[in-house]
Amino acid sequence: MHKGVLLITGASSGIGAATARAASREGYKLVLAARSVDKLTALAQELGPENVLTCKLDVTNREQQLSMVEQAIETFGRLDAVFANAGRGGSPGGFSEADPDAWREMILTNIYGVGLTLQACLPQLKRSKGHVLLTGSAAGRTTIPGSMYSATKWAVTGIGYNLREELRGTGMRVTLIEPGMVDTPFFDEPPEHALADRDIANTVIYALSQPAHVDVNEILIRPTPPLD
């Protein structure tokens, strides 16, 4: 028995791929979207291609977002949840010296891309009284000197809050997933004292698995501080 159809952006690695594996074990059918088709194809083969649709997606491209949802409906007939997870980091240098082109790409991906995913998916999610999950960040809940990345994640926090109010009374749920440091390909060097991507995947599954009358608004999850 499958539990529904879950769409994940940024699904080719890190938190997205770990969530795909966890959701597959729980019985979800999956729509996996990312820029890297090769990685998506390998992941689909691992999870069982009969239960997985892969879509090449640049989240800043509206046509690709709409096409992704059309393919999902053609393949599975419905959409029950979306995990708007695609995101990227910035460049060092703070507001004084960071590469403005890197800012542009990051802001478009982390904010505009999330908005496009929501707009593409919401008509189908309203039909299913579905669930929206967003990858925010602990960086979107605190002050980090010079960090435009943090500012984009503050925006994702705002998107979650504001979307929840827009959808009030529809039966839909909105969950912000807000990780602290996670050891993913996002970093060139593995950070110390970090969460694993599967730890974040587990929080997504927890939120999804709650009964319809329970709306887990936010999960702020950080690694346990190291022993002194």
Give the terminus-to-terminus CA distance. 47 Å
At the first level of CATH, what is the class?
Alpha Beta
CATH architecture: 3-Layer(aba) Sandwich
The major sheet is characterized as: 7 strands, parallel
Structurally, the number of domains stands at 1
Q: How large is the count of helical segments?
A: 7
| Strand segment count | 9
Q: Could you name the CATH topology?
A: Rossmann fold
What strand line-up does the widest sheet have?
Answer: 3-2-1-4-5-6-9
The ordered string of helix (H) and strand (E) elements is EHEHEHEHHEHEEEHE
Low-confidence runs: none
- Structural class, please? alpha/beta
Question: Percentage of helical residues?
Answer: 40-55%
Name given to the CATH homologous superfamily: NAD(P)-binding Rossmann-like Domain
Strand content: 15-25%
Over all CA atoms, what is the radius of gyration?
17 Å
What is the molecular shape? Answer: globular
- Mean pLDDT across every amino acid position: 93
Report on this model:
The protein has a single domain (4-221), classed as 3-Layer(aba) Sandwich (Rossmann fold), CATH 3.40.50. It is globular, with a radius of gyration of 17 Å. It is built from seven helices and nine strands, in the order βαβαβαβααβαβββαβ. The strands form two sheets. It has a seven-stranded parallel β-sheet, with helices on both faces. A two-stranded parallel sheet has the order 7-8. Helix 2 links the parallel strand 2 (28-34) and strand 3 (52-56). 42% of the residues are buried. The protein has 228 residues and is α/β, with parallel strands linked by helices. The chain has helices at 14-26, 37-47, 62-76, 94-97, 100-128, 148-166, 197-208; strands at 4-9, 28-34, 52-56, 81-84, 131-135, 173-179, 182-183, 195-196, 218-221. The model has no long low-confidence stretch (mean pLDDT 93).
